[in-house]
Amino acid sequence: MTTSASASSGSEGTIDRLVEANERYASSFAHADMDSKPALKVAVVACMDARVDLTAVLGLELGDIHTLRNAGGVVTDDVIRSLAISQRALGTRSVMLIHHSSCGMQTITEDFRHELELEVGQRPVWPVEAFKDVDQDVRQSMERVRTSPFLLHTDDVRGFVYDVKTGRLREIDPA
Ligand code: ZN
User: Fold this and answer.
1) What would you report as the CA-atom Rg of the chain, rounded to the nearest whole angstrom?
2) Ligand 1 centre distance from Cα of residue 28 (Å)
3) What is the 165 CA–ligand 1 centroid distance (Å)?
4) Which of 45, 84, 115, 146 has a CA positioned 20 to 30 A from the CA of residue 78?
5) How many angstroms separate the alpha carbon of residue 108 from the centre of ligand 1?
6) Each residue of 33-42: pLDDT tens digit?
């Protein structure tokens, strides 16, 4: 490592550690022939929260599902884009939505956009999609998937709230 590199920020050092972990992973890699179509034909839309380990929570193996994650697990236009490709090009048939307790999206409001605009002089084009009632937000997400004209399969769409204190999923009844 050069002197200038060692003077770099801590976050750069963290990515170095991740790249080193990848070297160890790749040294014993055994999945070269895996099919790109998810084995379980399921797409999961979930919050990006670091406490939610979908592989462990759902007992998954590599290649089982498509995973779409963003702040809140919100069904945005871009999530619909990915679901359309997931279903039409890669054969998934079911959609599982996973929000969780103590989500950061419950601590902010749409004022976040206004505050950003004041700070940077430009209003974001995207809505914040903040929410207070996590159950209601799961219902809204299910409705967005079920009513999308771009999706082939909207009969098996189920929504859940993951409890970060217990590790348990709780299913939400549709509206
Ligand atoms: Zn969250």
Assistant:
1) 19
2) 33
3) 14
4) 115
5) 11
6) 999 999 999 9
DSSP assignment string, 18-36: HHHHHHHHHHT---TT--S
What value does the mean pLDDT of the chain take? 93
Q: Both 51 and 117 in a single domain?
A: yes
44 and 85 within one domain:
yes
pTM, whole model, 2 decimals?
Answer: 0.90
Task: Give the type of residue at 164.
Answer: V
pLDDT value of residue 4? 43
Report how far ligand 1's centroid is from the alpha carbon of 134 (Å).
10
Q: How many Å lie between the centroid of ligand 1 and the Cα of residue 74? A: 9
Task: Please name the residue ranges forming H helices in 32-172.
Answer: 54-57, 77-90, 111-120, 134-146
Examine the domain organization and report whether 80 and 129 are in the same domain. Answer: yes
Verify that 66 and 93 share a domain, yes or no: yes
Cα 51 to middle of ligand 1, angstroms: 9
